[in-house]
Design goal:
Number of domains of chain B: 2
Oligomer: heterodimer
Strand order of the largest sheet of chain A: 2-1-6-3-4-5
Largest interface: A-B, 37 and 26 residues
Distance between the termini of chain B: 45 Å
Largest sheet of chain A: 6 strands, mixed
Largest sheet of chain B: 2 strands, antiparallel
Distance between the termini of chain A: 42 Å
Number of domains of chain A: 3
CATH architecture of the largest domain in chain A: 4-Layer Sandwich
Chain lengths: 618, 164
């Protein structure tokens, strides 16, 4: 049985720790990972809790496969809490080496509550849990923190998950980083950690992680390894996700200069091909994985010489084309800095792009930027702005550390037109004007703008639909994608490896059952996926969001047609079509026209106890 | 006993190893029927992204670990050169651990006796599983041969490609 069946509670205010049994009924109904994490967050919090208050639980989750040899799922963890960006449920996942250590220490999850008096880290050595002083690590990067802790405690194999200066200073896009390059990236989970004065979690686990059927499980893992050498993972093993740069540019879907243009004249210069040829020095991977995807890039010469970071498409896009920057060396440095201060590498680029757009349009001036020339394409300004935001330096840094939504509110005037977020979370790298299934999908995502909640860009990119419009039928595609991804994120399978589950949910059920011994089939998982989506929606409703008026799109997507000559010229999302899309989605979800799950739907998915939360909204 | 030229051991190639630890999981499953890297007879080290290597017993001649044991708990197999541990004699004192230059012999977390690579009856599971083909079950002679071939290929890259 690969569950440890134990929850570790750490109260940072009192310093008390406690171990309680995990209710195994929940482990079946919510799988693990984000599903179980969100359920436990709901059960352990009061409605309307402030994300930065000590009462907001911060939950480190493992999945049912964590600690086993399962490629990509054996090494993972998720963090669930209320997001300071969206003010509703937040969750993010990361792989690497850290996650399995929690399971080997004998816990399925850790619930942190309270707030330490000064900066601390929690040291979990199997059954021993200590809260130790971290004041000497104030301002250190996650990687420096990791190294310092391992040196202090004297064990190379201790794994650490930590925040940087951004998280300490409650920068709302603060992330949590483990194993140098792996981030609990989105939704500001690192800022929540900072609000608790929790600098890091260090774990050493030496216990066994058993699976219920070792022989059949190992055989299945062997099959997955074989599949990982095949076509389903080719992209990740070769050029990696930066391959998307030229693909999206050709589709007029490479959002450029803060979603002004949909194509980038410098695309070739920042393409995956160029990156691979000139900068990628080694491709490495996570624990237990049969593929490798971490493209470690090093700048060989020039003003950013020696700068090293792990480059994926999203951060390359946000710090590159979106800011009009066509220099990979500067982009590599920008990503390194985001990791150094501990900020979401997607949001940071979208925030700087907003600042640039405001500057170019006179909404902010040299006086606001302390003379920083925030023009599109100015790579030195990009790098400087990231430093200021990561450290909350000056008006610029302090304002934009609040994220695009709040920055727009602080600045006022026309700033809202340049704030590209949904529910407060910054858009990822897809131009939603020319990928309109994605537009609808991102708008209804429970954690805000996100390509990984439904993969709704897929029908657009693959040419399965007319991507320049929204029409009935898209709702079902989005729902199916969401329910599947809820399962993937609850098993905490890496999405890069989703393609090796040749039999989809059937393979995933087999994985779960062989590891845990708990009977599971594809229908159970599909139901769990739907249950989890409804759960998240109800949580958001409890927290004051989660209805139609929150399912929106940024101003530019709805009002600013693609201006340049390209296949997408003149395209934008029309409000009337978007409304049809929302109606369609709510209908297939069994929700009201206002986007609220009905009591019947909640009963059907086994969430009848949540009916009182939605009743007032019906 | 096979000569030093004939003894096969698990050799790791740092240019291929990515530190993924699949070898550790395969080893612990084979020997302990569970997943637990701390019970693996091979351990991967990632110093940083660029420097990774998995290390296990190198079957030294006149093994220092055997010589170091004050209780005669260790001996080297006549058949394949692996280090065999008499668990009744071993008291976990760790002299052998200090004697090993490679950190290949370790203290078992449960039994508190030392444990080391046994080559899986001639079919090392770490080699079998390594996704990067970074591990080889081979002799030192073959390792040096391969290195020579790689070096020469690199030197004469142009000549080789024009042949094609």
């Amino acid at each position: 049985m690969s569950f440890a069946k134990r929850i570790l509670y750490v109260d940072l205010t009192t310093g008390k720790t406690e171990v309680k049994p995990l209710d195994m009924k929940l482990a079946k109904e919510y799988i693990g990972g984000i599903g179980l994490g969100m359920k436990l967050w709901l059960d352990h919090s009061e409605a309307g809790v402030d994300p930065f208050s000590p009462e907001n639980p911060l939950i480190f989750m493992t999945g049912p496969l964590t600690g086993t040899m399962a490629p990509s799922a054996g090494n993972s963890y998720a963090v669930v809490s209320k997001s300071p960006l969206t003010n509703t449920i937040g969750e993010a996942k990361a792989h690497g080496f850290f996650g399995s250590e929690i399971k080997r220490a004998g816990y399925d999850l850790i619930i942190f509550t309270g707030k330490a008096e000064k900066l601390v880290y929690v040291w979990i050595d199997d059954d021993s849990v200590q809260i130790l002083d971290a004041e000497h690590m104030k301002g250190m990067s996650p990687a420096e923190t990791d190294e310092t802790i391992r040196e202090t405690l004297g064990d190379f194999y201790i794994r650490v998950s930590a925040i940087g200066e951004a998280g300490e200073k409650l920068c709302r896009i603060g992330c949590i980083i483990n194993d140098e390059y792996r981030a609990i990236g989105r939704g500001g989970m690192g800022a929540v950690m900072g609000s608790k004065n929790l600098k890091a979690v260090a774990v050493r686990g030496t216990k066994d992680v058993d699976v219920s059927d070792p022989e059949a499980f190992t055989e299945f893992v062997r099959t997955v390894h074989e599949r990982m050498k095949g076509p389903a993972t080719r992209k990740y093993r070769t050029l990696g996700t930066p391959e998307n740069v030229l693909v999206l540019n050709a589709l007029a879907a490479l959002a450029t200069r803060n979603f002004t243009n949909a194509t980038f004249e410098g695309a070739e210069k920042v393409s995956g091909e160029t990156l691979s040829e000139k900068y990628v020095k080694k491709i490495i991977g996570c624990a237990t994985c049969g593929m490798r995807c971490d493209h470690i890039a090093v700048v060989p010469e020039g003003q950013y010489k020696g700068s090293t970071s792990r480059v994926e498409f999203e951060c390359l896009w946000s710090c590159g084309p979106l800011c009009g920057v066509d220099r990979l060396d500067a982009i590599i440095e920008a990503i390194r800095l985001a990791d150094y201060y501990g900020m979401d590498g997607i949001s940071i680029g979208v925030i700087v792009a907003m600042a640039m757009d405001c500057y170019e349009n006179g909404v902010i001036t040299d006086k606001d930027t302390d003379g920083l020339k925030l023009n599109f394409g100015n790579h030195e300004a990009l790098v400087e702005a990231i430093k200021r935001i990561g450290t909350r330096t000056g008006w610029l840094g302090d304002t934009f550390a609040e994220g695009t939504k709040r920055a727009a509110e602080i600045i006022g005037k026309d700033a809202y037109k340049y704030a590209n977020h949904i529910k407060g979370m910054e858009l990822p790298g897809y131009d939603l004007r020319t990928l309109q299934t994605a537009a609808l999908g991102f708008s209804v995502s429970f954690r805000g703008a996100c390509h990984l909640r439904s993969g709704a860009y897929s029908p657009d990119v693959k040419g399965k639909v007319d991507r320049f419009k929204i029409e009935a039928g898209r709702g079902k595609m989005i729902m199916d994608g969401e329910d599947l991804y809820n399962v993937v994120d609850s098993l905490i399978l890496c999405k890069f490896s989703r393609g090796v589950m040749y039999d989809g949910l059937k393979d995933m059920a087999k994985y779960y059952e062989l590891a845990t011994g708990i009977p599971m089939n594809a229908d159970d998982l599909l139901m769990a996926g739907e249950r989890i989506n409804n759960l998240a929606r109800v949580i958001n409703i409890r927290e004051g969001g989660g209805t139609r008026k929150e399912d929106t799109l940024p101003w530019k997507i709805l009002n600013f047609p693609v201006p340049e000559d390209c296949i997408g010229k003149g395209v934008y999302v029309k409000q009337a079509e978007f409304d049809i899309g929302l109606d369609d989605y709510y209908k297939v979800r069994g929700w009201t026209k206002n986007g609220v799950p009905t009591p019947e739907k909640l009963k059907q998915v086994g969430l009848e106890d949540l009916i009182p939360i939605v009743e007032k909204k019906l | 006993m096979p000569t030093i030229h004939e003894k096969k051991f698990v050799s790791g190639d740092p240019s291929k190893c990515i530190g993924c630890c699949v070898c550790e999981y395969a080893c612990s499953m084979k020997h302990e029927n569970t997943y637990n890297p701390t019970k693996s007879r091979i351990r991967a080290i990632r110093l940083n992204s660029f420097v990774n290597l998995a290390v296990s017993c190198r079957l030294c001649e006149d093994s220092p670990c055997v010589a170091a044991c004050p209780r005669d708990a260790l001996r080297q197999s006549e058949e394949n050169g692996t280090i065999m541990i008499d668990e009744d004699k071993c008291n976990g004192c760790g002299w052998c651990i200090e004697a090993c230059d490679y950190g290949a012999i370790q203290l078992h977390p449960d039994t508190r006796k030392v444990f080391v690579c046994d080559l899986c009856e001639g079919n090392p599971q770490c080699v079998e599983w390594c996704p990067e083909e970074a591990l080889d079950f081979t002799t030192k002679d073959v390792v040096s041969q391969k290195a020579r071939i790689t070096a020469v290929k690199k030197l004469f890259q142009d000549a080789l490609s024009s042949e094609e």
